[in-house]
Amino acid sequence: MALLKMKFTQQRRVRLAQGLWLLSWVAVMCGAFIFCLGVYLKTELLRRAEVMDNTEIHVVPNILMMVGLASMGTNWLASRICQDSLDASRFPRWKVFLLAWFAVAALLCCLLFSVVVLSYALQGHLEESLKVGLRNGIRFYKDTDVPGRCFQKETIDRLQMEFRCCGNNNFKDWFEVQWVSSRFLDFTSKDVKDRIRSNVDGRYLLDGVPYSCCNPASPRPCLQYHLTDNSAHFNYDYQADELNLYNRGCRQALTDYYMELMNSTGPGVLSVILIQMSVILSLRYLQTAVEGAMALENPEDESEGYILEKGLKATFEDVKATVLAMVKLAKVDPAAAEESTAAGDGEKGDNATEKAATPTPAS
Fold this sequence. Notes:
single chain; mainly alpha; two-stranded antiparallel sheet; 9 helices; 2% strand; elongated
């Protein structure tokens, strides 16, 4: 018994083909949208590659770009099939490709759904990548004369100003690293000598932060140094004052930014999945209705269109039997292989014996 069977007159088949042609081009535009979305997300991730430790999160834009291109191609083919569906001389050539088309289109829907799932599942990996990347970025902030790290200071400063953040977790992360290059330290100064001697590793540590941590919205002039010393500034309380700095760490700021960006793609991707599924179902109805009409004596008579020729259970059993048959054909029976090899060797031996027994003609 056919699943979701419907009757189609000649007029309904024509309208279905016309509507599906238009829907196919809408799906092509959706594929272009998905591709552009992947390119934009990829670009945003590459812009912050210096503060990321790994590229696992790049799997999301990579899938979007791949699916976007594939979707444009498959739906363009669907529009061509619609044009040829009512021509008895041109439609049969597509019958060979339709099964592969349905498989590819269904795979694209599954990949798009996996993007939505991965957008949430990879949040932990994104946070860990940013944690390690920002920690290294802050540590190499002073290395403006080291090849490969020359622009690290500029990257961190722009990042903190753009995302209104400071440090990895908070501004205190700057207290744990020497972020002032030794080129700009006066080693004859007593303060510099004392700070270096007081540190086990011989680093010049400050209870201060770079200028890019300063919040321009604060009414008070920026305080960069002696942030934990209440007596160093007038009317200042280290515990209560906001220090005129950004309170949020850059790891949290970047994580929120990228997760909001990826999560905002969810509704758009789900809409594209619905459109793609509509194209798949409509094309299946069109295929079965047209093939049914071509099997009639009068092609303009009413025909039946359906999604599955049999019920779900029977279809599953047929697919299972087909797959098992293909697996059996793919397997090679060792005993049979040995017998065939032995038979071949025996034939070669018989041929050699016959040749030896045949007398050589006299010259």
